[in-house]
Write a structure and sequence with these properties.
single chain; mainly alpha; Rossmann fold; Serine Threonine Protein Phosphatase 5, Tetratricopeptide repeat; DNA Cyclobutane Dipyrimidine Photolyase, subunit A, domain 3; 3 domains; globular; binds flavin-adenine dinucleotide; DNA photolyase family protein
């Protein structure tokens, strides 16, 4: 009898334990992607990017004589419908770790079992299942370094090969048409602006990993913070859709370390930050939507769309480092990690604005949006997270600029104003923004929304006067 492979954030064919199990089950495999409430709730850029990933995956499956069946609705209802249509007796999928997905998946599993259907979930999204990592006292790691020490020596399963064939059913169940889902509807700049910056699918991900290991990983520890350098792997975009597995990245990192490439250890540590984000999300899901340190609920964050917040979103704060990074995100769907830390510090400290406002904007703009890493990153910057930069540590965008963009290449790449012949990247921002923002490169560069030392003083005063 057929097996239904329910695909979610695991849009690849290689190193895919659930796909392997489906193929090993012996019958035909019916890969399905369900447009459910969770998909509907995605931000504009991640939803648009998902559409590209599905299109690519449908092509990869077709190359193997298989298909991607698309259905819309509540996951359990859709799966039950497919079971009825196809006579499937086995449903499998790759685990997810955010609380909504866990609630949905547990309910689906229980209901299918009650129907007499075998329902099994598999690993593949994480290197270390969150429940397998605990402190000596049996608790959750709240600080990264001990987490790293606990996992760094563990065996990580070697990646599985792509199945040679994916058995197809005699008759395929009907599928929605991807275009009808209009996953890019809220993305006003998708095809023209962001698309050239996307490296799509399993093929794109593997070539990124190959280039990184051949040319970049050796100096990764030195170059990863220099904002104008292309010194990082850029794999977050692919990891977010599951177009590559963390195991594939980890094993490549191990090989590079064995070859004596110095930056490899740092790369492994960064992959472990992603794991740490999921460890926190799994054990303390409140990190996704509220202050991890609950005393911060009493902090007087601004939560409104003030003029300063709008200008932060638009990359028009008048602070070059902030604006360059915000424009980079708007145009490419990505932002350098250093930029993410600095703009998040600026919003939550200089502008005293709740990190959730920034978290939400990132969720709308990032093609590598990941619920766990985004929440952890914001709470790290705001000071409300477990392993956080303390609130009184206020990044100074001007000194950060001197340190991480000493020759101003990054800033010039993104800020057109004041440059006689700005590069295409800088002008592309003005072509990308909605007309109602009323921006043009001919306008003078704005005056700062807040003087840097004044913003810093205000942030520190609010911190001193806090009630906890
Ligand atoms: P590399 O430097 O090549 O690192 C390799 C991989 O390690 C990354 O692809 C990523 O999976 C992981 N990694 C690296 N740094 C971190 C980190 N600090 N936290 C968690 N994982 C990490 N990352 C996302 O993937 N999605 C997000 O939505 C996201 N939001 C963020 C928001 C804020 C405020 C901050 C400060 C960080 C955020 N990050 C997020 C983490 C980090 O900025 C990105 O993972 C990184 O910039 C991706 O670039 P890269 O793939 O070239 O990383």
């Amino acid at each position: 009898s057929p097996t239904i492979l329910w695909l979610r954030r695991d849009l690849r064919l290689s190193d895919h334990p659930a796909l392997r199990a489906a193929c090993d089950a012996g019958g035909p495999v019916i890969p399905v992607f369900i447009h459910d409430e969770q998909v509907a709730a995605l931000g504009a850029a991640p939803k648009w990017r998902l559409g590209l990933a599905l299109e690519y995956l449908a092509g990869s499956l077709a190359d193997k004589g298989s298909r991607l069946v698309l259905r819309r609705g509540d996951a359990l209802t859709v799966l039950r419908g497919l079971i009825e249509e196809t006579g499937a007796r086995f449903v499998c999928w790759t685990r997810a770790y955010d609380p909504d997905a866990i609630a949905r998946d547990s309910a689906v599993k229980a209901a299918l079992k009650e129907d007499g259907i075998e329902a099994r979930s598999f690993g593949g999204h994480l290197l270390f299942e969150p429940w397998t990592v605990e402190t000596k006292q049996g608790g959750v790691y709240k600080v990264y370094t001990p987490f790293w020490n606990a996992v760094k020596g563990r065996d990580v399963a070697a990646p599985l090969a792509t199945p040679g064939t994916i058995p197809a059913p005699d008759r395929w169940p009907a599928s929605d048409v991807l275009g009808d889902w209009r996953l890019g509807a809220a993305m006003n700049r998708g095809a023209d602006v962001v698309r050239p910056h996307v490296q799509l699918g399993e093929g794109g991900a593997q070539s990124r990993l190959g280039v990184f290991m051949a040319h970049k990983v050796a100096d990764y520890d030195k170059l990863r913070d220099i904002m104008a350098e292309d010194g990082t792997s850029a794999l977050s975009e692919n990891l977010a859709q599951g177009e590559i597995s963390p195991h594939q990245c980890w094993h490549a990192g191990l090989r590079a370390r064995e070859e004596g490439k110095k930056g490899a250890e740092t790369f492994l540590k960064e992959l472990a930050w992603r794991e740490f984000a999921y460890h926190l999300t799994y054990h303390t899901p409140r990190i996704l939507s509220g202050n991890w340190r609950e005393e911060w609920d009493a902090f007087p964050w601004n939560q409104d769309e003030t003029v300063a917040v709008t200008r932060w979103k638009q990359g028009r704060t008048g602070v070059e480092m902030i604006d360059a990074a915000m424009r980079e995100m708007y145009v490419t769907g990505r932002m350098h990690n250093r930029g993410r830390m600095i703009v998040a510090s600026f919003l939550t400290k200089h502008l005293l604005t709740h990190w959730r406002v920034g978290q939400k904007w990132f969720e709308d703009c990032l093609i590598d949006w990941d619920p766990a890493s985004n929440a952890m990153g914001w709470q790290w910057a705001a000071g409300s997270g477990p392993d956080a930069s303390p609130y009184f540590r206020v990044f100074n965008p001007a000194t950060q600029l001197d340190k991480f963009d000493p020759d101003r290449r990054y800033v010039r790449r993104w800020i057109a104003e004041g440059q006689g012949t700005p590069p295409a990247t800088a002008t592309s921002y003005f072509a990308a923004v909605p007309r109602r923002w009323g921006l043009s490169p001919d306008q003078p560069y704005p005056a700062p929304v807040v003087a840097l030392d004044e913003g810093r003083k205000k942030a520190l005063a609010a911190y001193e006067n806090r009630s906890f």
